[in-house]
Design brief:
Elements lengths: L3 H8 L11 H10 L16 E2 H11 L9 H12 L8 E10 L4 E10 L2 E6 L6 H9 L7 H13 L5 E7 L1 H12 L2 H4 L2 E7 L6 H4 L2 H6 L3 E6 L14 E4 L23 E2 L4 H15 L3 H16 L6 H17 L3 H21 L6 H23 L1
Parallel strand pairs: 4-5, 5-6, 6-7, 7-8
Antiparallel strand pairs: 1-2, 2-3, 3-4, 8-9
Helix pairs in contact: 1-4, 3-4, 5-12, 6-7, 11-14, 12-13, 12-14, 14-15
């Protein structure tokens, strides 16, 4: 079987008239929203930049030459798209990218003008601490800034004529569903498809609202075999499980998803490990009130901010001990609640586990949480 690169090689010479848009094209568009198109694709929706030309300009700037992340894969994708007749008549416009520490918002989106309409693609979490904090805020907030921004963006993009398609990967998938549900009904009526690629759902009471029910028949979620992110919170829409290479959280990388010539390699259900994570997180969230979740999230974020890192990668490389020290330096109530929440997570994990040979992992997790509990007690006694 192939991957996204193979798909472009297989179908890149066939026009959209010969082979209509499908879900793999939507996955490709979702990945385009991650490309740093600043200074290449205009922010406005009138006019735009042909996709092949935009790809060549980004490659010429060399912004994808640096090591790290998925730059090498993105570079290869742009090289293929720049030479693929299938995409030569598509135009990119409306590129926006926002990162706001004050409002805790990370947002980016791109519009692809198609022959008979347009596709709005929303970017997922980009690795910044602000982006991850906004994701965590979804556990206790009815709405986060990026979701409101997604609705506003769709409303402006919809001034262009034709049918509407929405897509996104990771948090971008959540934004696509939210925008489709919460946009004006005149715009909602033009939407023909919403595609959520391993993006989280919503709190149950939000997912059950009439606005979400109106678009559920046009919405589909795609999850890799060992999905973690896409299993979070609640989904009302149907979903498809996709075979993927790699292990665990690395399957979130859409370049690892397996495809055929016109669709994904589908499976019957997600892996046992993915189901365990799903049960663990849902049980854990149910064990806390929204205000407790908020206090825990804010406490953990304050600890991460103390590392003076801007990205999750920087925390991993140089700030892990600083984060732990900052966590233990939180005010007494927040520290106790945060450590209690971590113990609750461990207990939820234990309840979700079937009888299995994971005794070593269980003991390690329990030991770590006990260490945190002991350190917290020593700090309170001193």
């Amino acid at each position: 079987m192939g991957n996204l690169f193979d798909y472009v090689a297989w179908r890149g010479d066939l026009s959209l008239a010969a082979v209509p848009l499908n879900d793999i094209d939507a996955l490709l568009f979702a990945r385009l929203s991650y490309i740093p198109f600043e200074g290449v694709v205009p922010a406005g929706f009138e006019g735009g930049k042909p996709l092949p030309e935009a790809a060549r300009q980004v490659l010429a700037k060399g912004v994808l030459d640096q090591e790290g992340g998925q730059n090498a894969e993105d570079k290869r994708l742009l090289e293929l798209l720049a030479a693929a007749p299938r995409y030569e008549r598509l135009t990119l416009c409306g590129f926006e990218s926002t990162l706001n520490r004050e409002t805790e918002e990370q947002f980016a989106a791109l519009t692809i003008r198609l022959p008979l309409g347009l596709c709005v693609a929303y970017r997922g979490t980009d690795g910044t601490l602000v982006g991850w904090k906004e994701d965590f805020n979804m556990a206790f907030s009815d709405v986060v800034p990026a979701q409101l921004h997604a609705v506003d963006y769709l409303t402006r993009a919809a001034t262009l004529p034709g049918t509407l398609r929405l897509c996104g990967h990771s948090k971008g998938g959540n934004l696509a569903v939210y925008a489709a549900a919460c946009c004006p009904e005149s715009i909602q009526g033009r939407i023909v498809a919403v595609r959520n690629f391993d993006g989280p759902g919503f709190q149950a009471e939000i997912a059950a609202r009439p606005a979400f029910q109106r678009i559920v028949g046009r919405t589909r979620t795609f999850l890799p075999r060992s999905s973690v992110v896409g299993m979070l919170l609640e989904h009302e829409e149907p979903y498809t499980v996709v075979e993927s290479q790699g292990n665990g959280i690395y399957q979130h990388n859409l370049y690892l998803w397996e495809v055929c010539r016109d669709g994904f390699v589908e499976l019957q259900q997600v892996s046992n490990g993915s189901q365990i994570i799903d049960k663990t997180v849902k049980d854990w969230l149910a064990s806390m009130e929204p205000d407790q979740r908020e206090q825990v999230v804010n406490g953990l974020y304050a600890a991460l901010e103390a590392t003076q890192a801007d990205t999750v990668r920087e925390v991993r490389e140089k700030g892990k001990m600083a984060a732990l020290r900052a966590l233990l330096d939180l005010d007494e109530n927040t520290r106790k609640l945060t450590l209690s929440a971590l113990r609750l997570f461990y207990q939820s994990f234990m309840r979700a586990l079937p009888e299995s040979p994971l005794k070593g992992l269980e003991e390690k997790l329990g030991g770590l949480l006990q260490i945190g509990k002991d350190e917290n007690k020593e700090k309170s006694d001193s």
